[in-house]
Design brief:
Layout: H1 4-10, E1 13-17, E2 23-27, E3 43-48, H2 58-67, E4 82-88, E5 95-101, H3 109-113, E6 119-121, E7 127-129, H4 139-143, E8 150-151, E9 170-171, H5 177-180, H6 187-194, E10 200-204, H7 211-218, E11 221-222, E12 234-237
Parallel strand pairs: 3-12
Antiparallel strand pairs: 1-2, 3-10, 4-5, 6-7, 8-9, 11-12
Helix pairs in contact: 2-6
């Protein structure tokens, strides 16, 4: 007998409704329709580190405002949707400031270890957490090599309807999936462009004709811990 949950997944959409009317819609395999020759969309980011000012936190502020999270001053428990970090080349001693968020891996370790299926990857490459079935075990946090996930310790108020959160669950960057599904850019990308930095480029990395794919093909890029075989959807230029 087919359950309601199985029916919704098989027909292409699964909706989880949380307290307060917050709803997360996660599309299954039908989300990433083939465009040409069977190619499926895979959304990704290219970040030009040379254009990312050391003291700028525009992308962080935009994400916080868009998705309704904020720092409490406790680095051990604060949300990790996106953060600015300083990295230093051990040989040249050159330091760079860059944003780090969920890398939306093609082979996400967080999905592999999740006991309930709450951590999942959409057909278009976006990795999400289904808050309706997340039990807060935090296995995904331990498995993530990018420290891109965080656990919500305190009760929350005034949540965004498009970004459901909740005490006792794990969260991370959603690539602003609610905007992407409407044909819009993630908030961090839009804010970076508005600030005049243009350090972040968003697009379909499986489309050889997309701007992001052309940039990646023409310029040397690096992925964080590419040696792990997770195939991140986030690439860094001039790192």
């Amino acid at each position: 007998m087919t359950t309601r949950r199985q029916f919704l997944r098989n027909t292409g959409a699964f909706t989880a409704t949380l307290t307060g009317g917050a709803t997360l819609i996660a599309f299954a395999e039908t989300q990433a329709k083939s465009d040409t020759g069977g190619r499926k969309t895979r959304w990704g980011l290219l970040i030009d580190v040379a254009r990312c000012p050391d003291g700028c936190s525009t992308c962080v502020s935009a994400c916080s405002e868009e998705n309704g999270w904020g720092d409490t001053g406790n680095r051990l428990t604060d949300a990790q949707w996106i953060r600015k970090v300083m990295v230093t080349d051990p040989q040249s001693k050159l330091s760079r400031s860059l944003p780090v968020m969920c890398q939306h891996c093609a082979e996400p370790p967080c999905v592999d270890v999740c006991p309930t299926g709450a951590s999942f990857k959409r057909a278009d490459g976006i990795v999400l957490v289904d808050k309706h079935i997340c039990i807060g075990c935090r296995y995904c946090m331990m498995a993530c090599p990018y420290k891109a996930r965080s656990f919500i310790h305190e009760p929350l108020q005034d949540q965004k309807s498009h970004a459901p959160r909740g005490k006792g669950t794990v969260e991370s960057c959603t690539l602003c999936v609610h905007r992407v599904d409407l044909g819009r850019l993630p908030a961090c990308v839009e804010a970076c462009a508005a600030a005049g930095h243009d350090a972040m480029l968003f697009g379909d990395i499986n489309d050889p004709e997309s701007e992001i794919s052309k940039r990646i093909a023409q310029h040397p890029v690096r992925k964080i811990r590419a040696d792990l075989g997770t195939d991140p959807g986030v690439s860094y230029e001039n790192l």
